[in-house]
């Protein structure tokens, strides 16, 4: 027995743990609240394995450019990368990610144990195949928060019902959402002028696309002919796309705060938390923070999924998968991290800490829907998600 293993034995550590002492992994992701939760969760991996975790978190406006450049340059910064869903095609075909299909089979990690939509969205390439390139890391979609305390006011309830013939409640359709936005637009609440809704309007990255597509999908827009790939005429620019785009512009014109013309996640959060708007669209990943916010949290806020359009209800998929970077010199350790993260107990703790697990053992547990105020909207939204093209030429 080597001296190191002898010491490890005395300390009650496994041989694997002893051999991992002094080793490290770097995980790359975006800079936001779930990433902070993952830092805390990963301390359990270090305690078990002896592998120190390092993190490279990139602000959202720079996230895609920074990390895609890292992949394209075959950089070694990231051992584990939590990449956006629409990258999966190009990362697989260009050889940036390690294929995990055989590893999952050998490690008894079953994709059937995760929400179907997230397996297809975050891991699979080609789409519809059984080839996997990521573990499901962070389920997410665009949904809504609303000022539950404002909606509950008796005077507003009475006025709204007299005008629209129904209760002031979370909308079931986009038409109802627009009417609620118009109802609150320019209204005085507790002596402060407020507005209807905060929409995604940012154009520098993906912001406005993440907002408008939920409406376009709901009116029947598709990227191309489901029976003939790349046949786009009449699909991406078809009647549903036009109808949805026009409606989104109308919603912006009627119901947003002045100057809300370049807004994404942070700007919508600011508008909502400062009491400017009755409703905001945003990623569900931010809802734990909103639920705890001293100004608008608790019983002041409610949540609802994307409403129905003329065809269906659809939510733009957010979220990411966790992949091993092909250019890493620490691929075996990275696979160990993924195997650890996939464990049901770790997935449960991830949810409890503010991450969004898509493991069915977590989301299908008897008490899940009551485990957090935003749990129902997460469950409902993940049933109706649709995503960008993951085509390599598009991503």
Question: Could you walk me through the main structural features you see in this protein, from its secondary elements to its overall organization?
Answer:
The chain is an alpha/beta fold and 395 residues long. The protein has two domains: 22-140 and 319-386, D-Maltodextrin-Binding Protein, domain 2 (3-Layer(aba) Sandwich); 142-316, Periplasmic binding protein-like II (D-Maltodextrin-Binding Protein, domain 2, 3-Layer(aba) Sandwich), CATH 3.40.190. The protein has helices spanning 3-11, 15-20, 33-49, 60-72, 88-93, 101-106, 116-122, 148-151, 154-164, 174-184, 207-218, 239-255, 265-273, 287-292, 331-341, 344-352, 360-363, 375-381; strands at residues 24-30, 52-58, 80-84, 135-138, 142-147, 188-189, 192-193, 195-198, 277-283, 301-304, 315-316, 320-324, 385-386. Helix 3 (33-49) links the parallel strand 1 and strand 2 (52-58). Helix 11 crosses helix 12. The protein is globular, with a radius of gyration of 23 Å. Residues 1-18 have low confidence and may be disordered.
Fold topology:
Elements: H1 3-11, H2 15-20, E1 24-30, H3 33-49, E2 52-58, H4 60-72, E3 80-84, H5 88-93, H6 101-106, H7 116-122, E4 135-138, E5 142-147, H8 148-151, H9 154-164, H10 174-184, E6 188-189, E7 192-193, E8 195-198, H11 207-218, H12 239-255, H13 265-273, E9 277-283, H14 287-292, E10 301-304, E11 315-316, E12 320-324, H15 331-341, H16 344-352, H17 360-363, H18 375-381, E13 385-386
Parallel strand pairs: 1-2, 1-3, 8-9, 11-13
Antiparallel strand pairs: 3-12, 4-12, 5-9, 5-10, 6-7
Helix pairs in contact: 11-12
